Amino acid sequence: MVLLMVPGIAFLYSGLARRKSALSLIWTVMMSFSVVVFQWYFWGYSLALSSTATNGFIGNLDHFGLRNVLGAPSPGSPLIPELVYSFYQMQFCAVTSALVIGSVAERGRVIPAMVFVFFWATLVYCPVACWAWNVNGWGFKYGVLDYAGGGPVEIGSGVSALAYSWVLGRRNEKMMLNFRPHNISLITLGTVFLWFGWLGFNGGSAFGANLRAVMACWNSCLTAMFAAMTWCLMDYRLAKKWSLVGWCSGTISGLVAATPASGVITPWASIALGVVSGVVCNYSTKFKFFVGIDDALDVFAEHGVGGIIGLIFNAFFAADYIIGLDGVNTGISGGFLNGNYRLLYVQVAYIVACCAYMFVVSVIIAKGIDMIPGLHLRASEEAELLGMDDDQHGEFAYDYVEVRRDYLAWTPAEKEQKQDGIHVEPQHGITGHQDIAKSSHAPSTPPEPEAVHEKSTATSE
């Protein structure tokens, strides 16, 4: 179920982008999964969740190459063999990497992005997963309540995507005129795939067919649907239209907020969580304009902010009887309403540590890769104009459309409109199209001097 989230992210990101880079985002997300499968097998699982590591910050290499990972009880639950647990946790790293790498949208080269994924999973995801879920991790011992990944997955993806986008730079704004998501049906399909997979993500984190798993699924759906309704209302107040993209965005923001909280808080608190996450994440989409970072797919606004909200809700609304529904985690204290006031600063300290560490290290990794000859992250301006599909892959999401349209003839608008009768030939793109444009406007009689002058000026422009 969780594996299905990866193509769900691919479809979601593809639909949110423009047509000329739609296939590139699918490739980037799916290839990031390939990289993570290797990384997690190679040393990722051991660095994140090796139970013999005692430093509290990162694991050791005791399970390098899945060495000695078989039928012993797992660190997550004594009822689950470690081999099953390691495979399940690999999906979490894959989903997080796929979310992060959407930040390459429409202007990033794909091979340097894959190099980034490997080192990011090793130096960013694995340490924070160790903090939260390793039995010797400092966050785990400190008493942090992070059920299914508010820190490693949600803050990790949102903050790291913001960092990568910052290093990558803004898209060329002259090419962003009248920008719209190119395929809302694909966005909806990706959202539904994610929703289904999220039930495995949140429900499965109870590690068994038990009441806590069902409670997590209930809470996930409650939070998601109240967030979806809230987001649609927020958009309606501005546009006076009911947006399907708004419904999808709200659903995802709710599922994100439910990730750290769904197996921890009560259903009524999940409803409040949905409303709050819908409002706050909606407003957070404006954050990128304040900081001047082109987070093209709003990964930070939905995943980073949503994960923070879910973790804060745990501090107030965590209930000990919800946590104990799996029959394993009995005796763990809840949050503020359970009288555990200490959890307030524990959760805040954990949030600050995750945000700071993941942003700084992600920037260092991205900058370091960008400085290596041949691995610069940013595509050229010509490639951005052409589209990542053509420049990086030579394939298109909709090939039957691409062979009939010359996108490079759609040159960025100039400040002043041309007068009627002035012909502007495409300056880029398919040579044959330029020839057609010339022949179709060739004068049948010798032109007047003024007409010749006008045409030559237009051609040079």
Name the features:
disordered C terminus; 2 domains; 461 residues; mainly alpha; globular; Ammonium transporter fold; ammonia transport; ammonium channel activity
Q: Could you give a short description of this structure?
A:
This protein has 461 residues and is mainly alpha-helical. The protein is built from 19 helices and no strands. Residues 450-461 have a biased composition (Basic and acidic residues).
What does this structure look like?
This protein has 461 residues and is mostly helical. It has 2 domains: 5-381, Ammonium transporter fold (Orthogonal Bundle), CATH 1.10.3430; 413-461, no CATH class. 62% of the residues lie in helices and 0% in strands. The protein has 19 helices and no strands. The chain has helices at 5-16, 22-49, 82-101, 110-133, 138-142, 150-168, 184-203, 211-239, 244-261, 267-284, 287-291, 299-317, 320-323, 342-370, 381-386, 388-393, 399-402, 431-440, 449-460. The chain starts with a helix and ends with a helix. This is Ammonium transporter.
What is the count of helical runs? 19
The parts where pLDDT drops under 50 for at least 5 residues are 444-461
Q: What does the main sheet amount to?
A: none
Terminal CA distance reads 54 Å
Number of folding domains? Answer: 2
Order of secondary-structure elements: HHHHHHHHHHHHHHHHHHH
* Architecture per CATH nomenclature, i.e. the level-2 architecture of the largest domain: Orthogonal Bundle
Family: Belongs to the ammonia transporter channel (TC 1.A.11.2) family.
InterPro entries: Ammonium/urea_transptr (IPR029020), Ammonium_transpt (IPR001905), Ammonium_transpt_CS (IPR018047), NH4_transpt_AmtB-like_dom (IPR024041)
Biased composition (Basic and acidic residues): 450-461
Subcellular location: Cell membrane; Membrane
